[in-house]
Amino acid sequence: MHILLIHQAFAALDEPGGTRHHELARFLAGQNHKVSIIASSVSYLTGKNLHSSRVEDDAGGRVKIYRSHTYTALHKSFIHRIFSFFSFMISSFFKSLSIKNVDLVWGTTPPIFQAFSAWLVSRFKCVPFLLEVRDLWPEFAIAVGVLKNPTLIKWSYWLEKFLYRNADRIVVNSPGFISYVSDKGGKHISLIPNGSDISFFDSRNTSRTRKELGWSDKFIVLYAGAHGMSNDLGVVLHTAKQLESNNEIQFVLLGDGKEKPKLMSETRQLNLHNLIFLDPISKNRISEILSAADACIAILKPIDIYKTTYPNKVFDYMAARKPIILAIDGVIRDVVEKAECGIFCQPGDPKALADGCLNLYNNQERAISMGKKGYDYLRNNFNREKIALDLLGIMEEMVNLRG
Q: Which CATH architecture has domain 199-381?
């Protein structure tokens, strides 16, 4: 089976950002399938240019990554981001037409516009179209206040419904999305949740890494991921301000995004000495940083629609055996509480987040126990290999039905 994935935000294992799709592609290749990926020539996380001309081979040539031209000013403003989305939508369509002998086209949203390209390519090639919904765009963009233009909102809702109704199958990565997608006309919906590959995470070199980073005498509270509007990291800054009298608690923000310069400026204004920023790193190195932390933060803005999400970073924290300080309500809170692997803090509340940090700092044996419980729960319920097998089953069924 030859699978074509169109994904602007795709990140390879040697790049910063979410690598879920590269991990899934490598698994599919290990099952003797071929995966071609049309990805952006600009990093979705950092906005930096990537290789744009050569074809990247992986998994013995069974995974090929093609970089498609994308407008470069991704993080300049929302309008520039829309230009970036449209440029990739067009360039990825024409790039896809050159990929031969495809059996299935896999589209993913957000950005939603690339999913339209995937649908169109599937119709040109007369093969099934699998739509993956990773968050509820445009609903999230409207809720956070970045999508305001009434015409663009109306057109985005139309496109969303069109894709849900015309996909041959739909997979969602959170159970919180199922009713929403169904209400918008989606059919044949399956849950393929976020999870993590436990083989990436190894805690054997924790002491060495902590020493190299100067963390040996600190209780490290780490956030790893995007620094965007949705991530509400200003709350973490004010939490650090409340705890600045405790010289042993150190906050670390690892990653990049549109809001990072603003957050760094605010850190200087608050004169914070207990919070540092680290540049984004590849998935190949994330294990050593997570393993060196004592606790990890997952946070989103206190918006009702975010209660539907399964943030991928939570599962990586669990795979790394780290207790979670969770400032997100909803379905992911259910996972953390069932796993007994973290503490829930009311979203948007620096005082609640500070109390959660102090709770784990003052009960470090309990924190270690939470981390172990999270790892065991993830291994049994959200192991990437099991998830990939379920996805492969759906793909094979789609191709077989098409005959």
A: 3-Layer(aba) Sandwich (3.40)
